[in-house]
Amino acid sequence: MPPDAIQYSMRKFAALAALLIANFIGLVQAEEPAWTNSTWQDSAWNARGCFADERGQWFRDAKFGAFIHFGAYSELGGYWQGKGPYDPAEQIIGLGDRHAVIPPDQYRKEVAGRFNPTNFNAQQWVSLIKKAGQKYVIITTKHHDGFCMFNTATTDYNVVDATPFARDVIKELADECRKQGIVFCPYYSIGDWCASDVQKPEYKSYQDYMFAQLKELLSNYGDTKMLWFDNYWYVNGQWKNDPAHAKELYAYAHSLKPGMLINDRCGRGAASTDGDYATPENQLKGSRQSRYFEVVMTDTEDDNWGWVSTATNYRKPADLIRNLIDCTSKGGNFVLNVGPTASGEFPPQHVAILEAMGKWTATNGEAIYGTMPAPECDTTATADCKCYATKKAGNIYLHVVKWPAASGEITVRIGRKGLMKAELLDASLPRTEYSSAIENDATVISVKQPAKVDPYATVVKLTFEADSK
Asked: Which CATH architecture has domain 48-367?
């Protein structure tokens, strides 16, 4: 080859090499994850909140959700080697100061190894939830025991690889939720009491392991509108619950699903201001809250979220319906938990609760879903009267849980005028009589107790003129 041709070829090769290097550098730069950028993290963190955010509209409208604690611990029903019930049942592997009731290796082989919920049926679960009036489902994809209820490449300690059941419970439930119009939300325990025993060697840190699992959950199970973190009792220095780590975890999850809500337990837990909303547990927060909240509650009168085979202390539908009304009237959501049995079914007591609640929401759901608090209503409770208020589209709804025994009527002062009519939402109940008057630019209405009332809560719908104040 002539020298000039050689020089030309060398120049051409050098130019091509430079182009490839530039493209490679550009590719590397383009692939750098956004969540590692502190400016991006700050931007995502500072934009938190679901009260005035479009991505939270479905959540604010939903009001009533379902929580499901289902995992290897369900196999035991709260008992181990004839002792129990351990409380809480879903934490049977590590109670108190996280001392092992069951050694991890034994738990993995003898508990997870025989977990076989052959009666699990996602269609039945979601149908029961939908009929109850629950609009979204939160389910434990991984609880504190580290056992994964989804098909994951990060560890063989999962329901597909480690059990005779060998089916992806999360995939089946997520698919069925979409089919029936229920919002699917994964729960993920940040802390993992067994991670040091199950991580594969390619994961150099717990963060790598956790982030890989989150990427699977947020990539392989359809549209995820909400992620529910839990557990800030980390072992072996896995993670930290300071604001900086909360911000990093929040940013990573948002880089995968930008429009997703994330609860406050991405950081310091239920007492924090981290994440998009608060999650008080087994308690009704006193007055209307300054931050959007979601009360999560067990279906038994204790702190067991997983199934206890001998439980008899299931909450009464009357109390749970009142809790739903209470949360809604304060501007929050109410989520009722169930711990499915070892065979994969909802306990019959829980099914009975859902049936009672479903009958009430089918009739009175207009006063729950998509509503807001009605602070203009003075519904101060007395010893013989209990009433809550919500509002939507110019209507105010009075939820009368207890009617005054002596007078047989309730009187409510409402800071607006233009009342057009009052009627019961339940058309099967007899009509009620009412009277109203204007006092100092407010409506004072008295509603007589109808001859028959709803055993849980009778809802009175008040219709006002559209432009009234």
From this structure: Alpha-Beta Barrel (3.20)
